[in-house]
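User: Can you predict the 3D structure for this chain?
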Amino acid sequence: MGRVLTVLAIMALTALPLIVQAQAPAQGQGGGRQGGAPPMPMGFFISSTPMNGGNLGGLAGADKHCQTLAAAAGAGSREWRAYLSTQGPGAVNARDRIGTGPWANAKGQVIARDNAHLHGDTVEAAQLGNNLGRMTAFTEKGEPVNGQGAQPNQHDILTGSTTAGRAFTDGMDHTCSNYTSNADGMGSVQVGHHDRSGGGNTSWNSTHGSRGCSQPNLVATGGNGYIYCFAAK
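Assistant: Here is the predicted structure, written as C-alpha cells:
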C-alpha cells in the first residue's frame, strides 16, 4: 500500500508543471503589451483652444494653430494641417490636405487607416466606418471634448466641408469667408459632430451650418470654435 501511494505522489508531482503551463495565459494576449508593437504616434486631435470665432486667419492661421498645439504636446516634429475646406476660385478640399494616414489619437488609438476609411469612400469602408467618435476624438492633451448632453455642449467642430471632405459648390458661404470673418449676418461655417450624435445625422465632418461666424454664435450653436488637426507627414 505504501509503495502505491509513493508512486501516485511521484506521478502527481511530475504532472504539476504541465498543468500550470496549460493554465497560464499566452504572452501578449489580454490587456498586456508583451511582445506587441508600440502604440502609434499621435496623428489626429481636436484643438483644445478656440481662436477668434470663424476668423482663423485663413488656412495658414489654422494650420499654425494646429502646429503650435501639437508642439506643446510634444508632437511638433510632424507637419500638421487643419481639416478645413475652402470655397471659390482655387477651392481646397479638406481631405486633400491631411496626408494619407493612418492617424491615431493622443492615446495611440487608430481613428482611420486612410482617406477612404476616414470618409467611407467605398461601400466596404462605409459599412466598416471609421473609429472617430466621442470615445476616441480627444484633444492633443488626450482629453475628451464635451458632447451632446454635457454642459456646455461643444460637439460642433469647424470643417467647412461636405461629408466627402470636399468644398461646397452651391454659392453659399459655408466657411465664414474662408475662415477670415467673425462677423455675424455674413455667412456661416459648416460643422461636424465629433460625438456622432444630434443634428439630424451622425456625420463627424458635415452635420449643419453654424448660426453665424462670431464666437458667441459658434457657442450658441453647440460648439466652441474647435477644429480637427491631422498630421500630414
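The domain at 44-231 is CATH 3.10.100.10 (Mannose-Binding Protein A; Chain A). The chain has one domain: 44-231.
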